[in-house]
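Support request, please re-run this one:
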Amino acid sequence: MRARFVAFASGLVFGLGIIVSGMVDPAKVLAFLDIAGDWDPSLAFVMGGAIPVAAAGFMLAGRRQRPVCDGRFLEPSKTGIDARLVLGAVLFGAGWGLAGYCPAPALVASVSGQGGTLVFVAAMLAGMVVFDLYQRLLSGSRR
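Re-run finished. Output below.
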């Protein structure tokens, strides 16, 4: 129960943060990414404020034997840079630059019911399903 409450509270704070920062407004995100045009630097301040908060969180977590709501820390199994990581980053960046959304702000903005946002979220979810099916087919052919 405690873990669910912490997850809910964390998601709520994160969602409110991206609403307050303006990251759910694709026009604001696109203006931030348009450094050659009518550039809006305000999201740089959002990121600049998030970095010290995250650094403090990682520092505090590093001093703990285990997380507050789990038995052990879950660390990534892969730590290197490979083609799959680079391709994923390129696709993420291209999608963010074209649509002005990345997954979390799009999900938060989807509650507004705006058509463009709902289309983006539907396409994002469809892409996740296609990727999952591809991964299953790929892992089945390796056996």
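The CA atoms of residues 31 and 39 lie 5 Å apart. The chain is about 70% helix and 0% strand.
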